[in-house]
User: Fold this.
Amino acid sequence: MLAYTLLILLAGGLQVLAARVKVTWDVGYLNISRDGSTTWRAIGANGQLPIPPIYVTQGDILELTAINHLDKPVSLHAHGLFQRNSAYYDGAGFTTECGIPPGSQFTYIIETRDQSGTYWVHSHYGTEGIDGLRTALVILDQDASLLDEYDEDVLLALEDWGQEPNDNLLERLKTLSLVGMPPNHPSVLINGINANILQPIRFTPGRRYRLR
Assistant:
């Protein structure tokens, strides 16, 4: 009986420690140059691209609201996260949902009690994710003692980036042979910056880094 009571108290304590983290994305188009050479209509959130990473602690509940200002549906998928008994929040367009219509909004409820680590959130509708609607989702471990194992936590987000909206490429792929086609994603971005012009990322000897 004592063990059962302690278990209930422990479970209750974990619920108290858990937070509801609310994030809102106003999803819209942005005319932007990310490779330093070409400007085209990409997709961002809250007027930003790259979209800032989302940080939560294991056990938190993430409430991610997407307000769709595009001219087509939007869906958001938390890549790698379990959706036990909550497939309706999985965000897979035309698989678990029809997508958020233009001018509408939807809130995804994402529980993190069973997982920690580095994941990402991205659109799961058409080519929107490749056009910029994506970011890292970092779930910090509930065990704070792990923080003693390193001095600094460094997130490195790598992206391919093209020279035109990917809907254009998709239409060509439906009609053309891939043989002889030039690469459509000639640039690599690190944390949203062209790798060719990015300032060196410096690490101090003797310090311990966790790279995500």
Confidence is low (pLDDT under 50) at residues 1-16. The helical segments are 2-17, 166-173.
